[in-house]
Write a structure and sequence with these properties.
- Helix content is about 30%, strand content about 20%.
- The protein has two domains: about 130 residues, MutM-like, N-terminal (N-terminal domain of MutM-like DNA repair proteins, Alpha-Beta Barrel), CATH 3.20.190; about 100 residues, Helicase, Ruva Protein, domain 3 (Orthogonal Bundle), CATH 1.10.8.50.
- It has a four-stranded antiparallel β-sheet with strand order 1-6-7-5. Strands 2-3-4-8 form a four-stranded antiparallel β-sheet. Strands 9-10 form a two-stranded antiparallel sheet.
- The mean pLDDT is about 90.
- The chain has seven helices and ten strands.
- The chain is elongated, with a radius of gyration of 21 Å.
- The protein is of the alpha+beta class.
- Zinc ion binds next to loops.
Length: about 290
Amino acid sequence: MPELPEVETVRQGLLPAMKGKSLVKLELNRKNLRFDFDSDLAATLEGKQIADIERRSKYLLMHFHSVKDQQTLIGHLGMSGKFTIFSHNEAKMREKQKHDHVVFYLDDGTEIVYNDPRRFGFLVLADQGDWQSHKLIRDIGPEPLTDDFDAAHLAKKSAGKNGNIKNHLLNQKIVAGLGNIYVCEALFRAKIDPTYPAGILTTKAGKPSKVCTKLVPIIKDILAEAIEAGGSTLNDYRQADGNLGYFQHRFVAYGREGDDCVSDKCKDKIIRIVQSGRSTFYCPSCQK
Ligand SMILES: [Zn+2]
């Protein structure tokens, strides 16, 4: 499942292919993905120019402009969604693949295909481009890579919380876009036991604890490193097959059950536990 860094990489890949181009035709090969398509989706967007593509949490925000109005298409990749870019020349030879649900035809001949076998992804219009108040987005917490997400914010949201810190960090109202993989990686690097109560992030006086001031920059670093790694693969990857956003990161905790802990001098192995139905990977010697 793509998390924030993968979605950011997709955004960076789509941007040069789409920005400033006009949408000639929007092909919808079904009536829905996770949600029904807006009934007037194609008619609303066709003829408009793609002014920009932004990201909020794990949502892509495609801004379509015309002289008359502005619309924002909110996109989510779900479990298996992917965009593939076909240049003018490549598009001539493109063969329709199973699960190609949406195709964006641009005025320079570029075709951008959205393929999603499991169909947990979606594309929905924000009313009059007002994506900030869309119900999917309005309650999301601060972006982790902005100054709005800092130790003071996390401490405030964690005061008196008895639930475990792992699930706490997955709560999108506290911080945007963190998922299972990067929470496991951040807790490993910060040497925090994922079963600890979230309240350890806050002192009795309501200030950030030492654990909190250590964790916040680690979360930022881990996400920034993954975005950097994704960006550096982008050119090669696009040349290979045009797919965006699915590249193999190397993780030190996530997915490594039974493997040796990578920390210096640690002789323990990574274990897996289940918290709220989701796997957590950690080193019981380093993270305590
Ligand atoms: Zn260890």
